[in-house]
Write a structure and sequence with these properties.
33% of the residues lie in helices and 25% in strands. By secondary structure, it is of the alpha/beta class. The strands form two sheets. It has a seven-stranded mixed sheet with strand order 5-4-3-6-7-9-8, sandwiched between helices. The protein has a two-stranded antiparallel sheet with strand order 1-2. Strand 6, helix 5 and strand 7 form a beta-alpha-beta unit. The chain is globular. The relative contact order is 0.13.
């Protein structure tokens, strides 16, 4: 491993320990005019560029009143609340019941209505077609032990993605837009290969570079 790789590994370890400590605490934040309280052990968008990329995509949308959106694995759900404020039929899901209850409370505080499911991927979401899907997935190949571990781990054999991509067909139509954020810290080629094997391909929409990491926003499209 070269010196840059060593520095990145050390930095990621130190920052990771710091973030885990911070995310064990309840916190308040304001992003793009959305005020939320984030419960302990819920994915907190304050610390992650990946979340901000998705939120900014929703912020840019116009003329979407009456359209539908689903934030899959919503965490604090800022993007969902923002979608609702734009007049969208805003849906969200998370495997963590604390994230779901927190989003419902924050939606009320922000004066909007949202529909939220406690669900592992699409398992408990009624089959329907969404205009927009927002996905900030876990991508480290390790099996989660506790519910909160699903913020980071996608299964030792990338089970999250192997379940996700085939199910997209049932929740989208030809006009649906699917956005996914990923990092250069993940095994991007493996994830793209899984997507391709199930009929989906990645189209890069935006790259956001920081000192030690690059985050990517992709639009997923069906392979013709």
């Amino acid at each position: 491993m070269n010196i840059k790789g060593i520095i990145k590994r050390i930095t990621n370890r130190v920052m990771g320990d710091f973030l885990l400590r911070q995310m064990e605490k309840k916190s308040s934040l304001n992003l793009y005019g959305i005020e939320v309280e984030v419960k302990p052990d819920v994915f907190n968008p304050r610390f992650f560029t990946s979340s901000k990329l998705l939120i900014e995509q929703v912020e840019r949308l116009s003329n979407v009143k009456g359209k539908s959106s689903l934030e899959l694995g919503c965490g604090a759900g800022v993007a969902t609340i923002l979608a609702a404020k734009k007049g969208m039929q805003a849906y969200a899901s998370d495997i963590n019941p604390e994230a779901v209850s927190g989003l419902l409370e924050n939606a009320t505080k922000n004066g909007v209505e949202v529909c939220v499911y406690v669900s592992d991927l699409f398992n408990d979401i009624p089959e329907q077609s969404f205009d927009y899907l927002l996905i900030n997935p876990p991508f480290y190949p390790k099996n989660p032990i506790e519910v909160k571990d699903n913020r980071w781990f996608c299964g030792a054999d990338f089970e999250y993605f192997k379940s996700l991509f085939p199910a997209l067909e049932s929740y989208t139509n030809a006009e649906s837009i699917v956005w996914m954020t990923l990092s250069d810290d993940c095994e991007l080629q493996v994830i793209q290969d899984i997507a391709k094997s199930t009929g989906w391909e990645f189209h890069l929409s935006e790259t956001r570079k920081q000192i030690m990491e690059a985050n990517y926003l992709f639009q997923l499209k069906r392979i013709n």
